[in-house]
Structures are given as structure tokens and as C-alpha cells.
Specification:
The chain is an alpha/beta fold. The protein folds into three domains: 9-76, no CATH class; 80-366, TIM Barrel (Alpha-Beta Barrel); 404-464. Helix content is 48%, strand content 9%. The protein has 20 helices and nine strands. Helix 12 links the parallel strand 5 (238-241) and strand 6. Helix 2 packs across helix 12, helix 5 crosses helix 13 and helix 18 (412-426) packs antiparallel against helix 19. The longest helix is centred in the first third of the chain and has 19 residues, at 62-80. The chain is globular, with a radius of gyration of 21 Å. The structure holds S-adenosylmethionine. Residues 102-103, 140, 142-143, 176-178, 198-199, 201, 217, 243, 277, 279-280, 282, 285, 320, 360-361 line the site of S-adenosylmethionine (SAM).
């Protein structure tokens, strides 16, 4: 029985409800009057239900689709302006006891190079990341209670926050590790993490169990209920995601939005971010072996529909996608991207040879961070290295109220300008610096409050003088 308030995975992600939703969407997909009604509702920026979003996903009418893309772009501009937040993944260990059939870390893979970074190696990786200009990381590990226990992850977080190299600092560590206990989530919260990210992979229970045949991750309910435990452990900001390609995308979109509705209903706050990874080639993984791969157009349609269905949720795209898809996705709702990423353990310091691949997936966007920053600015985006919200206690519903209050342009916008200025001063190439300075001059004028504009101008001057880490 479907129950959004239930704490049981199979009730808040009800298979029957998803099947019903998809059948209803199929039946109504040419009902243009109903589709128009849903688009009108989305224009009010209050979001859509999983049913409404599923109907839009089934819709094939070109005029309506154009309207949806246009609205997604508009909503993105209204809530996030032209800012794009940058981050990098940091792979700590690829030891893993699970048997996920799409992931090269699976326990039976005997030829992948297994590696776990020592604290000294983490230090070197972080210095390399700081020297690129990164301020925000997402740490990643395989699941292995012996090699990667929670204490190891906590030590790593402590090490990362402690490193101050030149003007560099990692100011926000997001964590993408396997589902764990309330007690461990509490420890992660105490360690000062930003978002806890856990991809559902697939919401389809039967497929989930087949795709995760062995190891603790096999337990669908334990994995699906992880965000509730994280919130119980005090983590306000959680990040959802589906690994597209494993199951039917229409099933996944309905499940993903049901999950968001459940978090909102039970905890009063929806997901902080949604990621949209697509399955990629990797060591012994061939993505064409999975039947449910989606083409670029479908992928972008999904992004646009998520954007209008959950307007306040940040959306993340990684270097699994190439430059062109990333460029288009920025117009349809993506607000965070990774740049200069390495998906191998220790990859920021040492380059691996072909035969010692420890990477989790092949990267499609290989450009260095400076090139990504430059490219973003030339497309009219404002790259942001801001980490202010969680450091100012604006997490969970407090961040959502900031979004809803319309004050983002007086808060996030100056923070973006100041952190970009730091980047230009400390790390940028000559051309990036030139383009960036011009952009900052122009964007400063768009801060609505005179007072905030003045303070921001003053801070920008102080950054020139060498002072760092201003924030609103
Ligand atoms: N091990 C952790 C867990 O169990 O959730 C999470 C960390 S894992 C390093 C990060 C994510 O990479 C996984 O959740 C999965 O969605 C994704 N991934 C795994 N194999 C992939 C592949 N071949 N292509 C693209 N993404 C993949």
C-alpha cells in the first residue's frame, strides 16, 4: 500500500503506485488540456507530484516540450541565477565487499588495482585539489567495513579540513559512502560534512536485488531508508540520485520524485540535491550490456522535468557526461558541476598507466578546472566556489527558506562573486582572469540591495589585498 508518510521503503516507494502512475501517464499522454494544466501549475514554482511529472515525461508534443524546456530554464534562473557551483570528487578507497554488477569496484573484480589512501596520501591529493582552486569536495569510497570503516572516513574528513596550503582550503566536504547506521550518520554530522549523498541506483526492487546480488548493499530496504536514518542522525542536507541505464527511466523518475515527496512529508525538507549519473564504461564494465540506456535527448528531458518538479533542489552533473551534454544541461536546470575530476584512487597526484586502472568510471569531460571555469563564463554562467550556506547554518529548511524568500540574489550572488574573485587571484590563467574580472564588474551591478553591493565591493578589494574567505 502506497503511503508517503510510511518509514518502510516498499510503502513510500510503492511498486504498485509507480505502475499505476505509468499506466495513467500512458493513457493521458495525448490529453493536451491536462498537460497544459500541469505546465500552468509548474509555472507557479511550487513543484509537481510524481504523477504530474510522469505525465510530462510521457508527453511527446513538441510545442509542450519546448514550453517545458523554456520553463525549466526560467525556474533555474529564478532560483539559482546564472551561478554554477563547482566541486570535485575525491576517491579515498576502492576496496568494496559488494557485488554491484555495473560497478568495477565489485568484490569479484580481481584485476582492478585496489587502493586505499593513507592520511599522507589524502593530504597530497587535497593539496593538488587546492592548487587547482577547489573549495568543495565529494568524498567517495567503496563499502568495506574492514578497509573503509567509519573511523577511516572520519579521519579523512578531519585531515581534509585541516589542510591549509597557500591560500587554499577545502571548506565543504560532501560524503558519498554506502548506507549506514543512525549512529554513523551522527558521527558524520559531527565531523562537519555538507551533504550526505547516496544514489539509489534503481528504485525497482526486483531489479535492485539482481543488480546487487551480494554484500550488504543487496538489502533494498536498508539502502532506500538510508536518507531517513541520515536525517534522524541530524544530517539536514541529503542528495538523491538514480544511475540511469539500469532500469526503465520512467520508472526511475516516478520513484525519485516519490522519494523526494517522502522526505518532504516526513522531515519537512526535501532533498538538497539530485544527481543524474548515467552508466559508463569502466574497467570490466560494458555499459551496452545494460538494456535501459537512455539517449541524450531523453536524458535532457528528464533533467528539465526534475527541474520544474522540485524547483528548490540543486541538480548535479558529473564528468560522466561530455562537454556538449553538460553545456545543454546547464540551461535546463543543472546548478552544480564537477571539474578537473579524477575518478581513480590517488588520481590527482599520480597518473595511472593503462594497465593499473583503479578508476570507477571513464571520465568524458577531461578538461582542467581552469578550462571549465573559462568555458562557463564564456557561456554567460557565473562559476561559484561558495560554501557559505552550511558554514552559516543555512542547511535543510533554512536553506529552503532562503530560496523561497527571494533573497538569494542578495546572498548567494555576492558569495559567488567573492569566491570567483579568490579563484581568479590565486589560480586562474591570464585569459580566465581577464574574462572573470569583466564578469565580476558586470555581475556586481545585478545585486539588488545597495548595502550588500557596497559591502561586496569592499570585500572584493580586500581579496585583491590578500584577505580571504568573506561570506554572507
Ligand atoms: N559505494 C557507495 C555506495 O554504495 O553507495 C557510493 C560510492 S560510489 C563510489 C558512487 C556512485 O558511482 C555509485 O553510487 C554509482 O551510482 C556510480 N557508479 C558505479 N559504477 C558506475 C559506472 N560504471 N558508471 C557510472 N557510474 C557508476
Amino acid at each position: 500500500m502506497y503511503n508517503v508518510n510510511s518509514m518502510k521503503a516498499e510503502e513510500f516507494i510503492s511498486h504498485e503506485e509507480i505502475i499505476d502512475t505509468l499506466a495513467w501517464a500512458d493513457k493521458e499522454k495525448d490529453n493536451l488540456a491536462l498537460i497544459d494544466e500541469i505546465i500552468e501549475k509548474a509555472k507557479k514554482r511550487k513543484g509537481l507530484t510524481h504523477r504530474e511529472a510522469s505525465l510530462l515525461l510521457a508527453c511527446e508534443d513538441k510545442t509542450r516540450l519546448d514550453e517545458i524546456y523554456h520553463l525549466a530554464e526560467q525556474i533555474k534562473k529564478d532560483f539559482y541565477g546564472n551561478r554554477i557551483v563547482l566541486f570535485a570528487p575525491l576517491y579515498l578507497s576502492n576496496y568494496c565487499v559488494n557485488g554491484c554488477v555495473y560497478c568495477p569496484y565489485h568484490a569479484k573484480n580481481k584485476h582492478i588495482r585496489r587502493k586505499k589512501l593513507s592520511m599522507d596520501e589524502i593530504r597530497n591529493e587535497v593539496i593538488a585539489l587546492q592548487d587547482m582552486g577547489h573549495k568543495r569536495l565529494a568524498i567517495e569510497t567503496g563499502e568495506d567495513p574492514v578497509n573503509n570503516p567509519i573511523e577511516y572516513v572520519l579521519d579523512a574528513i578531519k585531515t581534509i579540513y585541516s589542510i591549509k596550503h597557500k591560500n587554499g582550503a577545502i571548506r565543504r566536504v560532501n560524503v558519498n559512502i554506502a548506507a549506514t547506521t543512525v549512529e554513523n550518520y551522527r558521527k558524520l554530522k559531527e565531523a562537519g560534512i555538507g551533504t550526505y549523498i547516496l544514489f539509489q541506483e534503481t528504485y525497482h526492487k526486483e531489479s535492485y536485488e539482481k543488480l546487487h546480488p551480494t554484500g550488504p548493499k543487496h538489502n533494498y530496504a536498508y539502502h532506500t531508508e538510508a536518507m531517513d536514518r541520515a536525517m534522524e542522525g541530524g544530517i539536514d542536507d541529503v542528495g538523491l540520485g538514480v544511475l540511469f541505464g539500469l532500469e526503465l527511466y520512467r520508472y526511475e523518475l516516478a520513484g525519485l520524485l516519490m522519494h523526494a515527496e517522502h522526505l518532504e512529508a516526513v522531515h519537512g525538507v526535501g532533498p538538497h540535491t539530485i544527481s543524474v549519473p548515467r552508466i559508463k564504461r569502466a574497467d570490466d564494465i560494458d555499459p551496452t550490456a545494460f538494456d535501459n540506456g537512455i539517449d541524450d535527448e531523453t536524458f535532457l528531458k528528464i533533467i528539465a522535468i526534475i527541474r520544474i518538479a522540485v524547483p528548490y533542489t540543486g541538480m548535479i552533473i558529473s564528468t560522466r557526461e561530455g562537454k556538449d551534454v553538460r553545456a545543454r544541461s546547464l540551461h535546463l536546470g543543472i546548478s552544480q558541476i564537477s571539474g578537473g575530476s579524477r575518478t581513480s584512487v590517488g588520481g590527482y597526484v599520480e597518473k595511472e598507466s593503462e594497465d593499473e586502472n583503479s578508476a570507477q568510471f571513464d571520465v568524458s569531460d577531461n578538461r582542467p578546472l581552469d578550462e571549465v571555469v573559462n568555458w562557463l563564463m564564456k557561456m554567460g554562467c557565473l562559476p561559484s566556489f561558495c560554501t557559505a550556506c552550511y558554514r552559516e547554518g543555512r542547511t535543510g529548511d533554512r536553506f529552503m527558506s532562503l530560496c523561497k524568500s527571494g533573497q538569494i540574489q542578495n546572498c548567494c550572488h555576492p558569495n559567488a562573486l567573492m569566491t570567483l574573485k579568490e579563484y581568479l587571484m590565486d589560480y586562474a590563467s591570464e585569459d580566465t582572469k581577464k574574462v572573470g574580472e569583466e564578469l565580476i564588474r558586470k555581475e556586481l551591478e545585478t545585486i539588488p540591495s545597495m548595502k550588500v553591493k557596497e559591502v561586496c565591493s569592499d570585500h572584493l578589494e580586500k581579496i585583491e589585498e590578500g584577505i580571504r574567505d568573506f561570506r554572507f
